[in-house]
């Protein structure tokens, strides 16, 4: 059975902030017992190769 999760506005804002201006990378959201407990942002910087 699927339960509708309630996410408070503060957590949604934190997720939006994590993906804002992210060009290369990833955002991981850790959920325990149906509750967001952690948000990780990994940003990569890529530099053009000279040929």
The percent range for helix content is 10-25%
State the separation between the terminal residues, measured CA to CA: 55 Å
Q: Regions with pLDDT < 50 over 5+ consecutive residues?
A: none
Order of helices and strands: HEE
Biggest pleated-sheet summary: 2 strands, antiparallel
How big a fraction of the residues is strand? 25-35%
Would you report the number of β strands?
2
Shape: elongated
Structural class: alpha+beta
Radius of gyration: 15 Å
Spatial sequence of strands, sheet with the most strands = 1-2
The DSSP helix count reads 1
- Average pLDDT confidence is 89
Plain-language structure description:
The protein contains 1 helix and 2 strands, in the order αββ. It has 51 residues and is α+β, with helices and mostly antiparallel strands. A two-stranded antiparallel ribbon has the order 1-2.
